[in-house]
């Protein structure tokens, strides 16, 4: 899930650009990917890295809606307060 896809390139690119691409790939190797789903229909809209912040304009291909989202609202939050429930043992017959 956190793999960066690589494809065969047709054109040759300058050495400066290839150096920047290589450095970007090394920086992203330690990050994880997260999915951004459409809030209306739940369709996968975008995949972003874990350090992505800010606002982004997204378009859902399924429900044809275009809207801005704040990437900070669409991330998983760590649970700070956990509630411990007593588990009842299941009755065996």
Question: Can you walk through the features of this model?
Answer:
By secondary structure, the protein is α+β, with helices and mostly antiparallel strands. The protein contains one helix and four strands. It has one helix at residues 15-28, and strands at residues 33-37, 44-49, 55-59, 66-70. The strands form two sheets. Strands 1-2 form a two-stranded antiparallel sheet. The longest helix is centred in the first third of the chain and has 14 residues, at 15-28. It is extended, with a radius of gyration of 20 Å. The N and C termini lie far apart (43 Å).
Give a short account of the largest sheet: 2 strands, antiparallel
The tally of strands reads 4
Strand arrangement in the largest pleated sheet? 1-2
Structural class per helix/strand content?
alpha+beta
Q: Provide the β-strand percentage band.
A: 15-25%
Q: Which consecutive residue ranges, at least 5 long each, have pLDDT under 50?
A: none
- Determine the fraction of residues in helical runs and give it as a percent range: 10-25%
Mean pLDDT: 80
Overall shape: extended
Please write the string of helix (H) and strand (E) elements: HEEEE
Distance N terminus to C terminus?
A: 43 Å
Determine the oligomeric state from the structure.
single chain
**Total of helices:** 1
Rg (C-alpha, Å): 20 Å
